[in-house]
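Study this:
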Amino acid sequence: MTGSASASGAGKLRRRFIAPPRGDVAPACFRHPLFAGFNAYKDWMTAPDWPGIDVLNAGMSVPDRCFVAQDALLLDDGLHYEQRIQQGRIATRLHNWHDLFNAMIWARHPGIKLALNAQQCRHIEQMGAVERNRAQQALTQFDETGIIVRVRDTSLLSAWDQHDWATLFHTHAAHWRNGDIAIAAVIGHALMEQMLVPGRRLVGKCVVVQGEDDVACVARVAEAVHAGDVLAAPTELRPLPLAGIPGWHQRQDLGFYAQADYFRPLREGRSYRPAMA
């Protein structure tokens, strides 16, 4: 989602985040691990000037989709944001971090974006362009704040199931470092936007896949989203406090993981679906 006027409010976070101006963002910001999979688009993020629509489209690998500048004429077509994408036009605000990161996700993970759009359009056809069901909420949350996590051994999820954050991140730190559990893909462009402000402690909303190969795991998620096998409700998404991942924050002692305002305890009755195979 880009948060356009025709998106029916989708993609708004609890508090409206205002990204800093491009000239105020230090290039060092993009050395954070959240951006590790996007080195091919480094110039889009760090060049003095914003990339134009032609530059964004040069990075697009989906032949029947293209970025178009969002203006009043485009919004007057009466279509929902997702319906325009289905027709081939991805409305994009120029000089806008949120939409730039959205374009990067399209370029890096087109299969995921196509699957999310296909599901959103199916629900819009059923629900109309105003009302939104729980599946649409889940799809939007994943689009905005989603992370795909890959695990080799699903026993590592037991601590996560219980929100035992100290065990997941501190005791199991070696498993994060050797790839037994890893970030296979960052999907949430709103997470990327908020990471422009150093030190923010963000929470990703995750789908977990068992496997050895990141690319295969991302493809598996795209397949499942397109088929409607996942993201039927927001409660399917596992929260992951990203600052807890080893190497993602400057302080990671046991006292850090005891901060319950960020590393929140499990709510009574909450459970998570197992890793996808």
